Each structure stands twice: as C-alpha cells, then as structure tokens.
Amino acid sequence: MQSNESEDASTNQGEVCMSSAVDSFRAAQESPAQSNPASARDTDSNGLEDTKGELQHGCEHYRRRCKLVAPCCGEIFWCRHCHNDAKSDNEVDPKKRHDLERKNVKELVCALCDTRQPVSQHCQHCFVTFGVYSCMECIFFDDETAKKQFHCDDCGICRVGGKEKFFHCQTCGCCYDKKLQGKHICVQNSMKQNCPVCFEFLFDSVRPTAVLKCGHTIHEACLTSMTQNQQMSCPICMKSYMDMAPYWQHLDAEIAVTPMPQDYANWRVDILCNDCNKPSRVQFHILGLKCSHCRSYNTRRIKLEENQAVLDAQLTETAVQGYRTELAPSERHDDAVECKQNGALSMTIQEKYDLSCNLQHRRSLMIS
Questions:
Q1: pTM (predicted TM-score)
Q2: DSSP H helices in 120-218
Q3: Are 290 and 301 in contact (CB under 8 A)?
C-alpha cells in the first residue's frame, strides 16, 4: 500500500509538472515578447525595428540610421557637418560655397534599405528607427544617447549634456551650465557671434565653449591655445580672464630693480585700465604702466607727457645745429633766430614737427 501511495503521489506530481509546462508553452506563444526582452526592444507594438543597425551607421559626427537629402544642392550626406565640410570648407569655387540649414530638410534616405522618403522618425519601408534620440523640430537623429541630448525651446536647437544641468539665459541667448547661474556677466546675445580666435559661429558649434569673466564667449580649445601663448586677456574687450596677481607682483619686482634713465625719470603717462575701465596718471616705465586703482598692468596709454624742458632743449639744439650745417653762412643766423622767435622752447611736439617740415621744405627749394 505504501508503494501504491507513493506511485499515486508521484503520478499526481507528474500531472502537475506537465500542466505547468503546457501553461508556460501557451503563455510563450501568446506573448513571445515578454519571454524575450531583447526581441521586445527589437520590435515594438507597432512592428517598428528599434535596435536594428543601432550604432552601426553614421559618420564621424553622429551615429544614425538615415542620411539627409540637402535641399540646397540635392546631394545626400550623413549630417549637416558632412555637407558643410564638402560644400563650404573644401569647395574650391567661392560662388558654390554654401551651408545646410537642417530645418529645411524635407527628405531622408534610410541607411539600411536605401529608401528615399519624407522626414519621419521611422523608415516607411523597413520600419527601422532612425535614431534612439530623434527631434523632428531640428531634423536630428542620434543613436549615442550617452551624450544626454535635449531640445531647448528657447535656443530652438538640440544640445547635449543633460537638461537638468543647464539653464537658458535670456540675455545671453543660450544655455549655460547651472554653475554660472547668477554668477556670470550677461552680454546681449553673447553666443550668437563668431569665436574671436577661429571665427566659427558659436551658437550651434559642436565644440565646447567657455564663458570668460567679462561675459564674452570663446571655444575652450581656442582659450587653451591663448593661455599657452601667454595671451591672458579677452580678444574682444581686453579684460584679464585669469587671476593675474602673481604676474603683476613679478612685474613690480622687475620695475623696482630697473630704474629708468634720468632723461625719462620725470615722464608722466595718462593711461586707461582695461580691467577696471578707470583712468590714471602714472610714471612712465618701459616694462609696464600700473593702474592706480586696481593695481593691474593690463593698461593702455592715452597720452604721454615727457620731461618737456629736456626734450625742448634737445630738439631745439638739434634743429639749430642742422640748419647751421646745411644752410648758407649768411642764412644760419636768421634761421636760428626764426626758431627762437617761433617759440621753439614752448611749442608742442606737433608744432615742432610742423615747423621742422616747413623749414625742410624751404631748404629743399633752395637746394633745387
């Protein structure tokens, strides 16, 4: 009896196992996508191929599964950058150079089946998805979602880096890192201009851009190149974009051990500081002119006041000696008197220059 009970029990257990297997088989037939996550991603509920050919097609700029038909020239390119490289940067004939406005694109070509069709997110023939990230407003497709693409309505274009990390500055007219929110100087449409170094338009450039302390913008690579070449001021407004205090201290030490010659010791210079925009009158020195307000050497000279008495004496003596040497003996005294009568000792440099030109012209007429 025990053996029979054991057999009955084992029989009943076998029937339960068979029933479970049948149920599992029927469930697999009814919903095959649920039993295979990969196939669920390959084909969605509308029969569209989501991952077929993903990351296998595209150019050096983007990974995508379609090409753009350029409405301007009718040729086919992977992206607008490929078009611009061929039709603008590398075009020999200047009259044929042009750029592609991607929002004007009306047709695409599927990279998998070569079907030419109107712009859409999916191929009308093979149903493949053109890009894991697709923006129909920008006609933009990309399979590399690690870039964290997002569309900015205010900019009107797609950007990368993650929407949560950026804010749109209405004054500057562009998306900036949130670290700069409330901490940067706004310049009207600062990004809608060319890079001051390479002259590439910054607003839709794919190269990283830096915002300087003055609010102007520049490519990060161009800024690095400027720094390596000891160019520490903004190419647009000339303000220092780095902390220059150590360098100014070095200049202070150099000037302290390099006195100017006696003839220049009393010269004064009117300067305008590029950093604080304030004028100053300082002592002239060949190594640098220091702002009296912010102590910066990033200045420009406005007016130079030399040691007037010394300069006047030198110019007058040189002029008189020159005329005495070149003019006839009977005329030397008259020219020397004329120099003094015209107030050579009290004239400005420009007046002395005019007088010199006048006398030189008279001398040339006598010689000829």
A1: 0.62
A2: none
A3: no
